């Protein structure tokens, strides 16, 4: 409980991304926590130490610091980099365009696509352990030479060897499962306000329990674990069956394992059961059957007759990898078509950016990054095992070393990754170059309006301001780049046909260029370059994760990504990092409710904090709203969130938000701010007549040097806002109107 003496009216500041300190939020060197805990808490200046910076007379200032939910724990922040594909797959569904989804197809497609990412993760672990180590390396003297940690595996027959190595993918699945579960502990104690969180097709941020995703996550987690274990079981049975998949030997057990996979996929496509008891009744038999089948598979491998190891990959592994890639391609195409058709039915005022293709674009990014992680892991292990030589059909390894050939799908992934990087960089450069003149013209008009009379000695300063304004408009120009990325990913789907028939880039180039020509060798070197480019990018992420573990500053930089990507509940992939808003929004709502019992409250949200503030207002009961006002500044609500998430924070939601608090809302913004902007641009979707929400601040305040100063006023851009008089005027007005 807050025991600090305070005045009735409260200004509650909510910071933006990157986990700033409470001292910086309050602009005061000595603060004390009055509520919350070390993960997220409410702070005020220590009594007797003065007032907060930018405070308004008669209004107490309090800060809500939530940054430690994403940037506080080193282990949590570093490990989350490994969950990036899962996070993006979960984010994709929230970018859907508004409108009615009759059969919930978007949700089904996104959940199925997320299931393929779990299968990709398990296939990567299977590829390293069962395929590269157990099947392709250990049987060959040249590969296991000078490696005592692998040589002892040669004593074991093939079946027991594969059974033993199967424990590694199971352990990897358990680790990923544990990361998400352990990371969510900081959010405990903020349970749902209703028994059933609404996750329907028309869910709204105003729905009770919207931010509570534990029931949905628990259901999906059980199914994804079954998917992962089932993928391993099928791969193991294919490896120990003489003649591969379809040959007699373990066909009954193989059929049961495949059947459990199909059941898990069907349940994944169905809505989450509203009744937890019904969910348990469905999952318990599936889990029990999965455990029994897994034990039987391990036992069958241990007792299997010695299987001759031949050249090539683990039987069935090539087809499984190609099948997953093909499935992802089909799902991405279907997701693109469904999303585009849905956005065409939206009203003109609710048309999202990127032509409504935000969902498939982010989903394609999740698939691409997952493929990059997988290809890097498999290729780097293969590169290590074959003593630095990357084999391919044009340049095979000597027979004594073994084949050590990753699946063809990963060759195409490497080539597609290199193409995406080069084309993406080219499109970005061209887009920024072509938009430069337009952005400069816009900046020039703003400069002419704000500084009509400029002396010659201020010309350099004027050019600097103009360039700052022009650069702040770059965000609006990145749409073509993202569309190009989706097109590149779609063109990459053409390689699925080659994956299914086992033709890699070098083989295709060799056939087209004539056997014995140089086309195959050139393609091999280009593919190798793609492998290394992808590997370097992934390794850079790993280095960033290591630095996040050791450096608090790097951890805050990494947390920026998680602040944006983990804002929404997990409704697609359960292994994604947890949703910090599941604690932040209910905690803010609870604190605001308590403060309004003593006086009016102005929720002051900066940058991403304005999004949290808006979500909090939408969760407050009507009895509290009468004493609540909203001040936003540097806010991306309209500029980013309303355009990317029109189904949840579109113009209709923003109007509803203003109406709930009687339009006691002020928004401050600057042209030099690269993130914030007006909430209601001119148009029919604005507030009622006579209501002004947005206040534009000239930045810098002047070009000339004040006689009492030594330097010209700074270009403040995105921060700070509380130092300007307009901020205190807005707080005073909103406090007076909140009675």
Overview of this protein structure:
With 739 residues, the chain is mainly α. The protein has 28 helices and 8 strands. The chain has helices at 22-26, 68-71, 74-79, 84-92, 105-137, 141-144, 148-151, 158-165, 167-183, 214-240, 251-269, 276-302, 317-344, 358-385, 408-450, 459-471, 479-492, 495-500, 505-513, 519-550, 552-565, 581-596, 608-619, 622-625, 637-644, 646-649, 651-660, 725-737, and strands at residues 10-14, 31-36, 41-45, 60-65, 601-606, 628-633, 665-670, 694-697. It has an 8-stranded mixed beta sheet with strand order 2-3-4-1-5-6-7-8, with helices on both faces. A hairpin with a 4-residue loop joins strand 2 and strand 3 (41-45). Helix 4 (84-92) runs antiparallel to helix 14 (358-385) and helix 13 packs antiparallel against helix 14 (358-385). The longest helix is centred in the middle third of the chain and has 43 residues, at 408-450. The two termini are 24 Å apart.
Quick structural overview:
This protein is mostly helical and 739 residues long.
Mean pLDDT equals: 83
Gyration radius from CA atoms, angstroms:
29 Å
**Structural class by sheet pairing and helices:** mainly alpha
The strand count comes to 8
Helix tally?
A: 28
Quaternary state of this entry equals single chain
- Taking strands numbered 1, 2, ... along the chain, how are they ordered across the largest sheet? 2-3-4-1-5-6-7-8
Query: How far apart are the first and last residues' alpha carbons, in Å?
Result: 24 Å
Shape: globular
Biggest sheet character: 8 strands, mixed
Helix fraction bin: 55-70%
Poorly predicted sequence stretches spanning 5 or more consecutive residues? 1-6
Q: Kindly estimate the percentage of residues that lie in beta strands according to DSSP.
A: 5-15%
